[in-house]
Amino acid sequence: MWSICKKEINQFFSSLTGYIAVILFLLINGMFLFVLQDSSVLEYGYASLDKFFDLAPWIFLFLVPAVAMRSFSDEFRTGTFEILKTKPLTSLQITLGKYFSILIVILFSLIPTFLYVYTIKSLSSTGVIDSGGITGSYIGLFLLSAVFSAISLCCGSFTSNAIVSFLLSAFACLLLYFGFNAISHLAFFTGHADYYIEMFGIDFHYKSISRGVLDSRDIIYFFSLIIMSLFITEKKLQQK
Length: 240
Hints:
Blueprint: H1 2-12, H2 16-34, H3 50-68, H4 73-78, H5 80-85, H6 91-110, H7 114-123, H8 131-156, H9 162-184, H10 194-198, H11 202-210, H12 216-239
Helix pairs in contact: 1-6, 2-3, 2-6, 3-8, 3-9, 6-8, 6-12, 8-9, 8-11, 8-12, 11-12
């Protein structure tokens, strides 16, 4: 499993594509947080990273599918998946190896954002920030990236075309992240089932954890989505 993970990470960073993806993620966040006046934290008047945690999920909607889109599509297209099947590896080990490689790459892009925390703390007049809220938000962002990675890997196992894989992954992540929230605001559901419909969406649970409160229901929701997506991926590989 770890040999697959290591191979995928090396392959991702063997070209400029991997570095460009991570750099673009940091540049876009930095631009919105410190350059653009409407979204700049410098215009807030108080030390907060709420803008970052509101913006990051929308960037992840495209970043994670971009990282994951070649995980299986290239294997299917070039025929190397047939060679991979001859190795002493189970479908589950292949799936987990690919999954953890995507997750590690996303973590590489998150680590430099700790600089934002240091910057906000330095700019604070008291030198104090809401550490609990920021910690909870980072945990929520990690779980969000874990779910997006599992969904993107699952979508990629259905096609040998990297572009189709990216589009399917981005659409699935968007649907699960914001779709249920949008449906809950329809007039037909308002005041009746809107709250329960919204609970099916990732956005609801992400915002709950971002408030700094770790609810077991949110953790179970995230892990359920991850396990279900990886289970579907493994079954799809067994059919190949």
